[in-house]
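Could someone model uridine-5'-diphosphate with this protein?
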Amino acid sequence: MIPKYKRILLKLSGESLMGKRNYGIDPEVIAQYAQDIKSVTDLGVQVAIVIGGGNIYRGMDSEETGIERAQGDYMGMLATVINGMALQSGLEKIGLYTRLQSAIKMEQIAEPYIRRRAIRHLEKGRVVIFGAGTGNPYFTTDTAASLRAVEIGADVILKGTRVDGIYSADPEVDAHATLYRTISFEEVYRNNLNVMDMTAFTLCQENNLPIIVFDMNTPGNLLKVVIGEKVGTLVTR
Ligand code: UDP
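Reply:
Sure, complex below.
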């Protein structure tokens, strides 16, 4: 099998880590993700990961509980570090070498984010997990994924979700909704489709970084995407 991409940025949502639970981390999901990630590093693909935190805490929801937005966002960023540590353990358990880099300094558990160092780890075959999002409130982990992908020169962002790609409408509401195989950045804007938030999306478009949205919860899908099989939706110029 010959991989289509040399260096990928995999975006995993926090929510998908819940599996069948309503909160937190399902160890079966971590184990599945770890196997899938191993299947692509075995091909020599360099893998960087940005992980969300929505399964633990979301800044957007904090105001309802009387916590101001920026404070809640920092709490959300900490949640991504917890998820990153769980994923790191899952990867190491099956023999992968990993590094966790955090956008907020916490020296006892993660390296600080240093771009050149992250690239060096990737070149040495280590999986690099980027925790704490961008390190700034009012951003999302999708934006962190776009930013890090551009910074490290990734060939593509693979956005792992629980749906199998981008649809013309919400398939749960509209029976005629169709799945796009490929779609341009302009078409996504024009049809007001929800791929990533606009900050994240614009960063990809401006830097001509393709995005593939695919179902990460189906084992084997990540490998299929990486070897160029028709899985998910490709957003490109
Ligand atoms: N967050 C932030 N800045 C960032 C990334 C994340 O403030 O650069 C906060 C924000 O509060 C967000 C939470 O972290 O709600 C969890 O991230 P996100 O909702 O993007 O995770 P996902 O939806 O992928 O689980």
